[in-house]
Amino acid sequence: MIIKINFSILQHKDLHTFGKLSLDIFKGKNLSGTGVEVFVTRAGTSYTNFEKAFERELKNPLTPVLAQKDSERDDAFYAFRSYVEAGSFRTKEGWNVAAAKILDVVRRHGWQAPNFSYKAETSAITSIIAELRTGYTAELTLLSATELLDELDTSEKAFETVQKEMLTQPQPEGLTIGGTRPALVNDLNSLFNMVGLQCEATSNPELLTIENSLNELITLTLTAARAAATRKNNKTGEPPATPQP
């Protein structure tokens, strides 16, 4: 059985490395009659497309600008969340109740959104902002937290502006990170599922070796991703929570 991997916690560079190492495991293996070959080929094609888009993005002068904007929205997110958390300990009338309601919204959409992929983080932050603005204006006002939410909103929009600018640039072959990543993730999942099913059904020794190697790689990859999340969370003084899909 292949360990389930939550791809949303992998940044593009991590997925690039993971995809290559995963496919390398299949090289030189005898897959005849297993039905796995077609899945390897499909995943290989998706990886090639993702790699082209990834390498082109590395050369894009806006890539470091986008990373900086992401760091700024991370800081704004932590500033807002930490302020509201502090408010939950206040004895001033209504503060702890109001803070609890706001924090519940943050938890539901992405307590540790900065650890997500760019796309998942954007989705989490925009959902948090939208719900708080439409249903919790009284709580925000009571805690004087509106200004911090505005700063988070501004930093999120600044990130999205740079990201849109990158997307409007000419893209050779029509390949983009956003367009190729979902296909790669889907094809890797299909490949892993097929290997797991065949191992269970046939106990093919070649596939069992592949399965063990993949599980070792996945374990190492997840460990590295969690370590990165821990380093990022050191600024908040808390351990990383389980990432959301």
Q: What do you see in this structure?
A:
The protein is mainly alpha-helical and about 240 residues long. The chain is built from nine helices and no strands. It has helices at about 10-25, 35-60, 60-85, 95-110, 120-135, 135-145, 145-165, 175-200, 205-235. Helix 1 runs antiparallel to helix 9 (about 205-235), helix 3 (about 60-85) runs antiparallel to helix 4 and helix 8 (about 175-200) packs across helix 9. The model is unreliable at about 240-245 (pLDDT under 50).
Helical percent range?
over 70%
Average pLDDT value?
Answer: 90
Main sheet, how many strands, which sense, barrel? none
| β-sheet strand percentage | under 5%
Intertermini distance: 20 Å
Give the overall silhouette: elongated
Low-confidence stretches: 239-245
Count the helices. How many?
A: 9
The SSE string, one letter per element, is HHHHHHHHH
What's the β-strand tally?
0
Please give the radius of gyration in angstroms. 21 Å
Structural class: mainly alpha
Quick summary:
It contains nine helices and no strands. With 245 residues, it is mainly α.
Any key phrases for this structure?
single chain; 245 residues; mainly alpha; 9 helices; 73% helix; 0% strand; disordered C terminus
Topology summary:
Layout: H1 12-24, H2 37-59, H3 62-87, H4 95-110, H5 118-135, H6 137-143, H7 146-167, H8 177-202, H9 205-233
Helix pairs in contact: 1-2, 1-9, 2-8, 3-4, 3-7, 4-5, 4-6, 5-7, 8-9
